Amino acid sequence: MRERLTKERVVDAAIAVADHDGLDAISMRRVGEQLDVQAMALYRHVSNKEELVNSMVERVAARFSVPRTDVGWKDALRASGIAAYAVLKAHPWASAPLASRAHVGPERLRYIDAVLDRLREGGLSVQLAHFALHAYDGHVMGSMYRQARDEDEADAGAEVAALRAGELSAQYPRIAESMTEAVHDDDAEFELILDLILDGFDRLARVGLSRS
User: Fold this and answer.
1) Which of 13, 30, 158, 201 is 20 to 30 Å from the Cα of 24, by its Cα?
2) Which domains does the chain carry?
3) DSSP letter string, 59-126
4) CB of 153 within 8 A of CB of 94?
5) Cβ neighbours, 10 Å, residue 101
6) Is the four-CA dihedral 152, 154, 160, 165 of positive or negative sign?
7) Are 118 and 67 in contact (CB under 8 A)?
């Protein structure tokens, strides 16, 4: 007996497709194939592709852990940021729509409000917390998108391809040095920049910076 089709199953199937082939692969036909049903059957549960994508994004946003309230604000935001980064590593296609205001739903708002709450509790003014949210959230949401772009060899261009091949070192010595000697570690880089953001705003809060 075939399992009953529900909106939850439709969204799960769509996420599985996006995890494997990216968000551009999402279509009602493709999701129907994933579920072994006709595409028309999906319209009983989602009205169109836009609603389906919004539901997928909300499902991912629901997996973000809001910052804890039983530890210091920097520790809480650090842990929450790393946890959100791990969710996005599992669903890298979600980074761009999550950063878009077109896909701001209740789960996304819940997370943002909790981040702002901890920033305010940490002593940041309303204005400084506003700046901090953009820096923090932009880093968390943008890191996976940037990593995906870095991995796209087609966008590298001839000069970058030549540098990767060991050419043009005399023309761009510091870039060549970085490419050959620096260790490329996305996770370590993410955490380092996250710490710099949190430490920087902590310092600004301590000196009482407030901009109108």
Assistant:
1) 158
2) 7-56 (1.10.10.60), 62-206 (1.10.357.10)
3) HHHTTSPPPPSSS-HHHHHHHHHHHHHHHHHHSGGGHHHHHSGGG--HHHHHHHHHHHHHHHHTT--H
4) no
5) 6
6) positive
7) yes
H/E stretch holding 199 reads helix 186-206
What pLDDT score was predicted for residue 14? 97
Residue 9 and residue 3 in contact, taking contact as beta carbons nearer than 8 Å: yes
For residue 37, give the DSSP letter: S
At residue 153 the predicted structure's pLDDT band, cuts being 50, 70 and 90, is low
Contacts of 166 (CB under 8 A, 6+ apart): 176, 180
Q: Which residues contact 128 (CB under 8 A, 6 or more apart)?
A: 119, 201, 204, 205, 209, 210, 211
pTM, two decimal places: 0.85
- In the DSSP assignment, the letter for residue 186 is H
What is the token pair recorded at 73? 């604000």
